[in-house]
Amino acid sequence: MDVPVTRQNPITLPDAGLVGYSQISVVCPGRLAFVSGQVAWQRDGGAVSADLAEQTRVVIENLSHALDALQAGPAQIVQMRIYMTDLRAETQGVVMAQLGAFLAGAQPSLTGIGVSALASPDLQLEIEMVVSVPG
């Protein structure tokens, strides 16, 4: 059973829906899963690409695997935090293009955070999620 998530963009706040996320996500009491930040590490230990678009692809693949393990989909994502070592309009565009396709119209609450470093010097992107899970 899916737990409905209600999205809100109050008229007193900037309309985040125009760029693919919501200012507020409300979920009824239930189970929440807190998914650790996913980076461009591959299960087989393969090398991390220096290309941000490729790192984004691997991060989204890892997020998809986490959702599959929870038997959930993008519509059940309540909140996402995106950490980037080079947070600029251009790099945000690279990430958000792929992230928008992954979310498939779901618009979770989202925060973008510029950081000086992640868990390894070759990582440029990390995304964590809070997911409302069935049961």
UniProtKB/TrEMBL annotation:
Highest taxon, organism lineage: Bacteria
A Pfam family of this chain: Ribonuc_L-PSP
UniProt GO MF annotations: deaminase activity
GO CC terms: cytosol
InterPro entries recorded: RutC-like_sf (IPR035959), YjgF/YER057c/UK114 (IPR006175)
Coiled coil: none
SUPFAM superfamilies: YjgF-like (SSF55298)
Similarity-based family: Belongs to the RutC family.
Stated name of the protein: Uncharacterized protein
Biological classification of the source: Bacteria, Pseudomonadati, Pseudomonadota, Alphaproteobacteria, Rhodobacterales
